[in-house]
Amino acid sequence: MAVPNRISSPRFAGSIVLAARQFPRHRAAMIGLVCLVLICLISALAPYVAPYDPIQIKLSAKLKPPSFEHWMGTDHFGRDVLSRLLWGGRTSLGVGLLVVGFAFVLGVPLGLISGYFGGKVDNLIMRLVDALLTFPPLLLAVALVGLLGPDIQNVMLALGIVQAPVLARMVRGSTLAVREDLYVMAARALGAGPGRIVLSHLLRNVMSPIVVQLTIVFAAAVVAEASLSFLGFGTQPPNPSWGRDMSEARRFLGDAPWMFMAPTGAIMLCVLSINFMGDGLRDALDPRAWRTRRTVAAGERR
Amino acid sequence: MPLLSVRNLRTRFATDRGVVRAVNGVSFDLEEGEILGLVGESGSGKSVTALSIMRLVPEPPGKVTADSMSLEGTELLKLSEAEVREFRGSRMAMIFQDPMRSLNPVLTIGRQIVEVLHRHQKLEGAAARRRAIELLETVGIPMAEKRLAAYPHQFSGGMRQRVMIAIALSCNPRLLIADEATTALDVTIQAQIIDLVKRLTRDRGTSVIWISHDLGVVAGLCDKVNVMYAGNVVESGPIRELFHRPSHGYTLGLMGSTPRVDGTPMRRLTPIEGVPPNLIDPIKLCPFLPRCRVSVPACQVQPPERRDFGAGHWAACLADLTPGRAP
Hints:
The structure holds two protein chains of two kinds. By secondary structure, chain A is mainly alpha-helical. Chain A contains twelve helices and no strands. Chain A has helices at about 15-20, 25-45, 45-50, 80-115, 120-135, 135-150, 150-180, 180-190, 195-230, 240-250, 255-285, 295-300. In chain A, helix 4 runs antiparallel to helix 5. The longest helix of chain A is centred in the first third of the chain and has 37 residues, at about 80-115. By secondary structure, chain B is of the alpha/beta class. Helix content of chain B is about 30%, strand content about 25%. An eight-stranded mixed sheet of chain B has the order 7-8-9-3-10-11-13-12, sandwiched between helices. In chain B, helix 4 (about 125-140) packs across helix 6 (about 155-170). The radius of gyration of chain B is 21 Å and the shape is globular. In chain B, about 50% of the residues are buried.
């Protein structure tokens, strides 16, 4: 039969490629992505673009409002707020991304296993999750960091462990709902084993809520790192981090609001970008929400 | 040797209120290339019988037992879960009632076909794609090549059922079970799908179990029918014999409640009064007795025994329903 070599053309693109094509159609998501990339880029390039040394103390210039010399003013030690912002981004974004990574790697498999297999496995995992969830999250993180030592890597790990149960519980819930769908039974009737069902059928269907939850985890992680740093865990002074600087700036809110506004604005921009991006990702991952139905249009044209 | 042989199949479900005997001693044979209809009202055990054969009944709470249930000589109940997975899709396949829900909404059609091909025939890459296109063309999907990249929501119900049939037949199973496969479709599409199944299975010699509550569909498609009630087969026989000479009170009731469009003068449809028995309670006498219009005094004292009418036609009924004598 006439099956030309065009089969391997992009028409038969994988769903990832199709989703990637879909993503740019979501304007807010693109704005979010661009902002996030910019933030990441300038944070990564902080050593080259920061105008001052972020920990250089210069008491003669303390609490100066924004000027041409110091675009975002100076803090109570006379350190340049902009430089600290750029350097601090490295810590905060790093924490955010790694916590999201930890939470994903720990929480999602647990949730999927628990939700799909049910029974004793489910009971065991969920009781563990419940146990972790009974602690106030910050207290648990403090306890873990206390156990592991006050170090920024440990903070990331601790926050990941704190966030994972929340994710696991949510993934389990979504999995339970999707598991009963007829196509899961249909897949089993065609010989699919548990591994295939979980990975290729369930995971893809619970991806949307996961992505949304992860953007929330990111935001929570940035703020939690701030709280931990404020308590003396995490980022150690004089090293900059958005959260740390923000909590320090609270004391000077009346006298030097720029000190507060810079890191707060950065966190807000970042979280907002990620939320926008999450929206776009969620839609791009769900074929039912796609805007242009290119394949069908192409199919029906002729 | 029949392709599928089922002896005394019993499927029970443990519930809080007791054990539900969903299938209660079903026996039948299915020959190579034969199409068997399974009819009965909701809850009569048709679907559970199918799921039991596919070994898809969740255990617990379900429990499937049988004296024998063999496909091509292999005892299905003795297979391990891993072995039965090899069987599903390659030796026996099943399609479901609702084509809107039996395809994964977030995976492309192509991916879902290729997945099965890869699973059972180790086909990959271009070879798998070529086969997938072939399959879609076989079930009459135009622009098959482009449709591989489409998602289920971009298909109509009939198209989706075609895709399901393509997937189910992709690895040439010996047995295809269709559970109300056309119930969710409108009549014209239904006819197309039935033709398709008929053609494909005839060509390949596939045996089919067609579950339906639509007597018309069964009459047009099947070679043999099992009428099920309350987890039992109450009457069984070749399609002609059974439709010309229904010999069980329930079969008679089913036919009386089905409109005919074959030119027979219109008559009032007679519904079957009452409700099916609760399958938790033990049933000693004929399960249909409380609703039966043709019961005889003997029905009140002894369980029905199987009466043979020749040509493989039998019914578990004590009343004599020979034409002319039926009330």
